[in-house]
Amino acid sequence: MKKKERTLLLVLFLICALTGCGRKTGDTAGYQVYFSNSEASKLVSHTHVSQKTEPTAVLEELFAQMRLPYAAEEEKSLLPEKVEIDKFDLMDGQLTITFNDEYRNMDNVSEILLRAGIVMMATQVNDVRTVVFHIGDSVLKDSSGEPVGAMTSNMFINNPVGINSYQYASLTLYFSNKAGDKIVREMRNVHYSSNTTLEKVLMEQLQKGPMNERLRPVLSSNVRVLDVKVDKKTCIVNLSKEFLEQKPETSMSPEVEVFSIVNSLCDMLNVDRVQFQIEGNSDVLFRDELSFNGPFHRNSELIETVDSSSEEPDEIIAEPSIGL
Questions:
Q1: Are 259 and 185 in contact (CB under 8 A)?
Q2: Dihedral, CA atoms, 104, 109, 113, 115, nearest 10 degrees?
Q3: H/E element, 268
């Protein structure tokens, strides 16, 4: 990705976080419709209240609104005059938008603004979870010739600081398999503020849970990460007491709960071990089996491998790269 394109994209991630990307709104609350400022350097939005409830009807109305700038001298439509949405289809939560060939003539900045504005707008509509772009009969590809893929609101990290200082990371996370006896790797691409640490981002993403429906979360949403830091080759994770109280829906071994976190941190932070604390205390026996008195080292034996010729792969890219 070109430097200018990457910088603008990172700014758009922050814009999305600040505007509550992915929030499902009703027709009474209204939907945010996005435009660009006069310099075509950032997105601005206006609320549109729709009286319609059927998702495709709402989307059709919102796309029409994108053509109507609210302040001609200060804001303009993200859709260039000759760029048309030929059709769109909503099926099983995925919205596929097909542009005409004029889309290919857009410059990189305008293209990224358009894609971001549409994803942020469309994912507000009920039943829309992901957005895929096509040009005619072909899927949209990035500058390296790879398909851009489905875009989802989960790709945005809500961390509204440091607008000009974002970093990109491809995370390796581990979650439980369905049986609760093995851990499975899931890849996730994120952008995060340089004002936060990678270890905090990792814990945030683990708490979001897996994107792969075959996998199960290991860290419930009511568990608070009180602190996470790296000291030399040790990552110290201080969790609230809710971690001891969380109960998986079905049986899950305590080793799976612990080593999903341990392996994720060891793989990404270049640390040798993870020391757990519960509200500052390590003198804890987890699930009456695992003592937190000492640190845990990476466990490769718990990692489940899947035969790709017969089953789904053992990892999933949870957020597509955009223009990389």
A1: no
A2: 40
A3: helix 254-269
Q: Which of 209, 210, 191, 211 is nearest to 201 (CA)?
A: 191
Measured over the CA atoms of residue 40, residue 41, residue 47 and residue 51, the dihedral's sign is positive
Q: How many helices (H) and strands (E) does the chain have?
A: 6, 16
Q: Are strands 31-37 and 75-76 parallel, antiparallel or unpaired?
A: antiparallel
- Non-local (6+) Cβ contacts of 243 within 8 A are 219, 223, 278
Q: How many CA atoms lie within 13 A of 150 on its CB side?
A: 19
Q: What is the pLDDT of residues 253-303, one digit of tens each?
A: 999 999 999 999 999 998 999 999 999 999 999 988 899 999 999 999 999
Q: How is residue 39 annotated by DSSP? A: T
Give bridge partners of residue 184 from the DSSP assignment: 175
For residue 303, count CB atoms less than 10 angstroms from its CB and return exposed for 0-12, middle for 13-18, buried for 19 or more: middle
- End-to-end Cα separation, the chain, in angstroms: 5
- How large is the greatest C-alpha to C-alpha distance in the chain, in angstroms? 67
pLDDT of 133-155, one tens digit each? 999 989 988 665 778 778 765 55
Contact of 98 with 135, CB cutoff 8 Å? yes
Q: What is the DSSP letter of 216?
A: B
Cβ of 185: how many Cβ atoms within 10 Å? 21
- Kindly give the interhelix angle for 55-66 and 108-122, rounded to the nearest 10 degrees: 150
215 contacts 176 by C-beta, under 8 angstroms: yes
Q: Which among 319, 281, 274 has a CA at the least distance from the CA of 298?
A: 274
Contacts of 310 (CB under 8 A, 6+ apart): none
5-25 per-position pLDDT tens digit: 454 455 555 444 444 444 454
Under 8 Å between Cβ of 258 and 290: yes
CA-atom Rg of the chain in angstroms: 22
Long-range interactions of 53-58: CB distance < 8 A, separation 24+: 53/27, 55/90, 55/125, 55/126, 55/127, 55/128, 56/88, 56/90, 58/27, 58/31, 58/125
